[in-house]
Amino acid sequence: MKVFLVDDHEVVRRGLTEVLQWDQDIEVVGESATASEALARIPSADPDVVVLDVRLPDGSGVEVCRDLRSRGSRPYCLMLTSFADDEALFSSIMAGASGYVLKQIKAGELRDAVRKVGNGESLLDPTLIKRVMDRLRGGMEVDERIARLTQQEKAILDLIAEGKTNRQIAEEMFLAEKTVKNYVSNMLTKMGFSRRTEAAVYAVRHLGDHAGEREGTAEAE
User: Fold this and answer.
1) β-strands 49-53, 27-32: how paired?
2) Can you give the three-state secondary structure of the chain, one letter per residue?
3) Backbone angles phi, psi at 59, to 5 degrees
4) Which tens digit of pLDDT belongs to each residue from 122-137?
5) Whole-angstrom Cα distance, residue 206 to residue 90?
6) pTM of the full structure
């Protein structure tokens, strides 16, 4: 099974390589320290599994995962992080990751996780997926304008209704700020609004308590 490593710490990449290649059925075929390097090198390496650190210097492993998964069924993505973070888990599931494990995982368990993900299995607990889907729904009424949005756009609308700026949304959802701006622009077009404040007020009215009472959303940066 071919594996590609993405982590900004060289010592971590070396350690992972040693751990994974302990068994002869796993081969590390490439590595990178940044999101941009990963997206440039992964296609030619043609791995079965990409092991991704959630936080990278020029973005996040979540963004890399989303990009890779949008291209086709392979490679599968296994998120590896130092901290248990609901937001990172939420974003990873939305990006199409097959697994989410902490760096405290034992060596043998990590090899088993890579094998399972590489064979198309999911390491995500169904209860976690349900929690994410419940959050996405978040009590939203089935409304014509909201029904036009993708799940990601609904999540961003929810955060706009809470008064979050594009930068805050980007940090919370592990997206690039430019990506968030694109999502917001598409969302406003679909909903028929010209300003984010209109969308924020509309969302507050339709999301009720879930969105909170803060209608004073800052204008788009």
Assistant:
1) unpaired
2) CEEEEECCCHHHHHHHHHHHCCCCCCEEEEEECCHHHHHHHHHHHCCCEEEEECEECCEEHHHHHHHHHHHCCCCEEEEEECCCCHHHHHHHHHHCCCEEEECCCCHHHHHHHHHHHHCCCCCCCHHHHHHHHHHHHCCCCCCHHHHCCCHHHHHHHHHHHCCCCHHHHHHHHCCCHHHHHHHHHHHHHHHCCCCHHHHHHHHHHHHHHHHCCCCCCCCCC
3) 160, -135
4) 887 666 666 666 655 5
5) 23
6) 0.61
